[in-house]
Amino acid sequence: MTAPVVTAENLSRHYLVGGGLFSKPNTVRALAEASFSIQPGKTLAVVGESGCGKSTLARLVTLIEEPTGGALTLDGKAATPDNWDSLRDTVQIVFQDPYGSLNLRQRVGAILEEPLIINRPQMSAAERTAKAREMMQLVGLRPEHYDRFPHMFSGGQRQRIAIARALMLEPKLLVLDEPVSALDLSIQSQVLNLLMDLQERLNLAYLFISHDLSVVRHVADDLIVMYLGRPVEFGSRDQVFNTPQHPYTKALLSATPTTEPHLRRERIKLQGELPSPLNVPDGCPFAPRCWKAQDVCRHTRPELVGEGHQTACHFPEE
Ligand SMILES: Nc1ncnc2c1ncn2[C@@H]1O[C@H](COP(=O)(O)OP(=O)(O)OP(=O)(O)O)[C@@H](O)[C@H]1O
């Protein structure tokens, strides 16, 4: 088995908010104890409702923020702030909104070449241009697009520019943070197909963050389901979609439209609101909304257990 491109062990991030002269700050537990690894050429999807910690995880893996706990290994090297600069080429990110993530005053050529100017100062202008043109072709942009501005493109094409920019430094891992959520449904599948094609050609590892399980079903090899900053289920795509073990996963899947009869489920309507990450329940974080919850769930937090397919639940589905 080849070495994973990224390994996270109990990766955690909390934030201190509020507080003042006479009051202590509160702790927001944005991400707690996330563990996973991704092999070259494979996709790990992270799913969950808004606020469950997906973007926090993306920021930690792309070395934008430091974890407050746990360890991250990129390309076989422990990632600590001391060596972040040497690891930045390994991982790049594509954001949800290509309009917001591209500099609208720059032409496509300049957008693509900027990472090389910063990170490959030894490269000549001609080499940078050649690389930009190569990446444009790889993502399906035409040569004449090199001199155009982002506002002259459709949403799908802008996301192609963002993907090309992310590939300029030849990363081994792409963090895709809701990469198709802002696109029309008809364009989503084009961009997803492009991403899958690039993965195969370049043997890229993907950390694919999404709230949309129907998108995830197309792209994921493995899946982490997050709830209130914690992984509650982990498994292969087939394990999680065909035999979900955590009640929260079942509820999410029941709300996902599918054309496959064997995956259709009776709709489970979750009661109550997602609790605040400022006030995470003592026991299982899902207990206040869970129809199976017993006393033990309200007092003892279940660990993620299992061989391969793992669940953090005292009463998992059989
Ligand atoms: N810098 C910060 N300071 C304080 N709290 C934060 C900070 N960043 C994130 N949080 C909180 O951490 C929790 C997780 O946020 P995060 O953005 O990771 O969730 P998410 O799953 O990506 O949600 P969304 O899909 O809405 O972006 C949220 O409750 C958020 O308010």
Automatic annotation (TrEMBL):
Entries under SUPFAM superfamilies matching the protein: P-loop containing nucleoside triphosphate hydrolases
Pfam families in the cross-refs: ABC_tran (PF00005), oligo_HPY (PF08352)
Recorded topology in the membrane: Peripheral membrane protein
Single GO BP term: transmembrane transport
Gene3D superfamilies for this protein: P-loop containing nucleotide triphosphate hydrolases
GO cellular component: plasma membrane
InterPro entries reported for this sequence: AAA+_ATPase (IPR003593), ABC_transp_ATP-bind (IPR050319), ABC_transporter-like_ATP-bd (IPR003439), ABC_transporter-like_CS (IPR017871), Oligopep_ABC_C (IPR013563), P-loop_NTPase (IPR027417)
GO molecular function: ATP binding; ATP hydrolysis activity
Domain ABC transporter span(s) in chain numbering: 6-253
Keyword hit for Membrane: no
Organism: Donghicola tyrosinivorans
Compartments, as annotated in UniProt: Cell inner membrane
Protein name: Dipeptide transport system ATP-binding protein
Alphabetical UniProt keywords: ATP-binding, Nucleotide-binding, Transport
